[in-house]
Every structure is written in structure tokens, then in C-alpha cells.
Amino acid sequence: MSDPVPFRPFVAGTQPPLDHAAYGSTHLRHPKRALRRLPQTVSETTGPHFAPALFPAIGDLTKQAAGAPLGERIIVGGRVTDEDGRPVPNTMIEVWQANAAGRYAHPRDTHDAPADPNFPGEGRVFTDADGHYRFVSIKPGAYPWRNHHNAWRPVHIHFSLFGSGFAQRLITQMYFPGDPLLALDPIYHGVADAGARDRLVSRFDLDLTEPEWALGYRFDIVLRGRGATPFEDGGHH
Amino acid sequence: MPVATASQTIGPYWHLIEHAEMADLTRFGPGEEMGERITVTGRITDGAGAPVSDAAVEIWQASPPPDDRFPGYGRCATDGEGRFRFVTLRPEPVPGLGNQTQAPHLSIVLLARGLMTALRTRLYFAGEALNETDPLLASIEDPAERATLVAQPAGPGTWTLDIRLQGEGETVFLEV
Ligand SMILES: [Fe+2]
């Protein structure tokens, strides 16, 4: 039996470190020993099987309660591809976010901002055959956290993706363009590479925007590619 | 060439996507022939020995092969004591690279506030003869480090493995 094709290593600087002094919660939670390199086997190159019938989609976060949540309605969409530009089809995406006032429907969120009983804040969609996804929500609010004096998280939506192999598992956050809090956020700045940071920021998209109804934001997501890079393949670079 | 999207922490409020039943990988009723039902428990502590009470613990197993009735994947929220508990099917050995065989194991991903990227490790089962020749376990020279990957029996069909994020007894974490 031939070995499975492994996913490529990440490009240096494009992923955050586990030890990040500016983010206080990393201090006691990062391993002190170097990670041990594990050659990828079937346990890393294959991944979970989610039957869509058993993991029903929640594609409209504004319709999960009796009434409509307060806030600015938005449409978020984009495409999931790998580093070779190939679409990642039929993969599950989970999203969650604060309400328009910057508060999560979570018992441990003590931020003094109004709860919204009409906004549980959970979504789940699958990409189509071409890697595209889309969901409807409201624009979340910024919220304070206690990392340092006067610390506020930029407006964000949390994303969870699985891809086709467990080594592609990705948890990330989508930000909004023009947010002044991005410049001050240690979690966002945990990513050293400016281009990689910038790709976490969604783009306002007039084509995704629906007239008289909701603004559209585009957020494309790239999962690790498989096999050698073309550079390594060709040997001429 | 596109570059993989950066990881960001799952944060303290990921429970908005938590569904307690996801910790039971047998909930869709896999056939008896697929394998023995087991319970896997453990506790996660940080560098100060304090429980990690807001983590998402995920397991993935390529064996038995996932299908509509067995997703091969489960997720569990740690409780106030840092504990987690899964019900799943006992994995069989799976191929390694070349002619190697890997001992039965679960892949583990830890996600939490303070983890900028997923932390990865594995869980093996004590007493399994193949552990002696498993490529990963055999590559770890220090028996104490190796032991951080091996769950111990804790009653009928139950296995337990504590995970230490940092410091004395620190779990072996993996880069894949
Ligand atoms: Fe958040």
C-alpha cells in the first residue's frame, strides 16, 4: 500500500505561535517543550465524516428564535480552497459570534451589554461542490476583554473548518474591514506575517450585498495543500 | 499561490457551537460488528496545575472507518475540573508509513482560550502489544514522556489519560 500524500508544512510566519507574550492566556497554556514532528499517516490525512442529514445546516442566524435579532443584517460568503487553489467541497463550517451589542449568548460572558434572546449566535453550513459557502447573520459588536488595560476585541466571527484530513482542521476568526481595533489586538497581531493577517479581514462585497436587505462581506478561506509545492516539484525555481 | 489561512484562538465562548451529544461518537447507532464501545476520560491542567475548564477536546480516529453512523469525530467541553469524557468505538491498528503498523490510537486536538493554534496529541491504550513497535511511541526515548500518550484502564471498557499543557509531566504534543 502506498503512503498517503501528506499536507505541506505551513509557510513561515503565517500561523501564530503558541507562546505569545502579549496574549496573557497563553502564558500557562503553551507547552515548554518543542512540538514533536509526526510524519503524517492515515490518522492525519483523512478526516471526519459528517452526514449533512445528521448535522443540519443553520444558514440563517437571524431566524433561530421567535423574533428577529437586533443589529445590522449581513450576508457572509466566500470560497474554501486549498493552497493549490482547488475547492474544498462539501465540508462543514461552524460559525459563532456575539450579538450586535458585543455580548455572547453564553453564561460566562459578563460584559455589561444587553443580551438578545433572538440571537443564539450559532451557525453551520456546508460548502457546495465548488467550495462556496454563505450564511446570513447580524454584524457582531466589539467587546472588552481583560487581557490588558482598556482591551477590546475587534469585531469578529469565529469559524471552524474540517477540510478533508484532520491535519487541515482550522479554527480562525473573520474580521471586518476598517476596524480601528485591529491595530491594537494581540490575537490578530499574533500572526507575524502582515499579508496573512490581512487575509483574516473580510472584504465588503457589493455583489454579495442584497438591495434593500443586507450588506455582504466576502471571506475566502484557504486550507493546507497536499504534497510537494510546485517549487519543489519543478526544481527550477 | 494561496497560503493557508491563519489560525486564531477558539476563545472562551466556543460553547455556542457545543452540543453535548457530540462527545458520544456512537450516538447514531453504529452496528455491533463495528467495534467495542469504550469510554475515554481525562483531565486537562495548565502550567500552574489549574484545571483548564473552557477547552474543547476533540478526538478523531481513522478506525473503525467512519460512515454515516460513525463520524469518527467527537468533541467534548471540559467541565469546571478540566475533565472530559467520550464514548466511542475502540480503534483497530491502522497502517503507518511503508510497511509499518500503528498501534490503536485516537488523534486529539485541544482548542481553548490561550491556544493560538490547535494543540495536537494522541491517545494510545495501555497493554496493547503493538505499542512496543508503534512508530511514534517507539521514537520517544524517555519512558515518562511516552507515558503521557498512553491511557490507563479505569474500569470495564473505560480508559483515562490526563493532559498537562505545560511544566512537570507535560504531555507530548505533536506537529503534523
Ligand atoms: Fe469572540
UniProtKB/TrEMBL annotation, chain A:
Keywords in alphabetical order: Dioxygenase, Oxidoreductase
Lineage: superkingdom: Bacteria
Every Intradiol ring-cleavage dioxygenases domain range: 76-104
InterPro entries: Intradiol_dOase_C, Intradiol_dOase_core, Intradiol_RC_Dioxygenase, PCDO_beta_N, Protocat_dOase_b
Family designation: Belongs to the intradiol ring-cleavage dioxygenase family.
Designated name of the protein: Protocatechuate 3,4-dioxygenase subunit beta
Native source organism of the sequence: Paracraurococcus ruber
Taxonomic placement: Bacteria, Pseudomonadati, Pseudomonadota, Alphaproteobacteria, Acetobacterales
Name of the coding gene: pcaH
Automatic annotation (TrEMBL), chain B:
Alphabetical UniProt keywords: Dioxygenase, Oxidoreductase
Pfam family, one: Dioxygenase_C
Superkingdom classification of source: Bacteria
Residues of the Intradiol ring-cleavage dioxygenases domain: 12-152
SUPFAM superfamilies reported for this sequence: Aromatic compound dioxygenase
NCBIfam families found in the cross-reference section: protocat_alph
Family to which this protein belongs: Belongs to the intradiol ring-cleavage dioxygenase family.
Name this polypeptide is given: Protocatechuate 3,4-dioxygenase subunit alpha
Gene this protein is translated from: pcaG
